[in-house]
Amino acid sequence: MITYPELIERLKAITIKEKGYIKTHRKGNTGIGKTLEDLLGITENNIPGPNTAMIELKSARKNVSSMLTLFTKSPLPPKANSVLLERFGYESARGNKRKELHTTVNAKEYNRLKGKPGFKIDIQKDRVNLITIQKEIVGYWDKETLKNSFEKKLPKLLYVKAEAKDKGSNEKFWFNEAWLLSGFNFENFLNLLKEGIILVDIRIGQYPDGRPHDHGTGFRVFPDKLDLCFEYRERIR
């Protein structure tokens, strides 16, 4: 395994202006991460950080509006997904007569499901709730659980940004900005959630026997706001 100083030297080498644009190593949304990992000579995105601590590597295109997944966490209580699927799910487009629920939720307004208001995020003292327009709670997360989930997934983050051009297998990246982020700021996280900058993607399917299949309930953020979730920000490049 390479050391942190070696990693930073490799990062500086690929972010110099003379390096310019590099063709993607994989077609699609994950191409930027795969290309960066290959250039740095690492096989996974958990990498050695300062003082031997492990850090997460994330990359983002500067000139697109796609979001980054911070972490995934299913809502409580344990049967919340069953309730959401039963109440708000719709028949799958695959024609298999199973239900699914794919929706994005924010704290600013109710989502629209089946042509009607569905539910939204409501932040209270100790919990983050999912509430209907009738103020019924259909799921929730304890704030402490969310805080622990973030800190477990992203205690420290090496965040690399790139200019991107062209599309598909011809997409090219110029990696030209890198930050070491640490000190998760939970209050900032809640504020971004309240402002509708952090969103929650709910992806629930259904097994043949009717049980819900959680494809990953993700807390997501726009790349240019990611650094606001952290108290300490060190520009590496």
From TrEMBL:
UniProt signal peptide: none
Alphabetized Gene3D superfamilies for the sequence: MvaI/BcnI restriction endonuclease, catalytic domain, MvaI/BcnI restriction endonuclease, recognition domain
Domain MvaI/BcnI restriction endonuclease: 14-230
Protein name: Glycosyl hydrolase
Keywords, in A-Z order: Hydrolase
Top-level taxon of the source organism: Bacteria
GO molecular function: hydrolase activity
InterPro entries, per database record: MvaI_BcnI, MvaI_BcnI_cat, MvaI_BcnI_rec
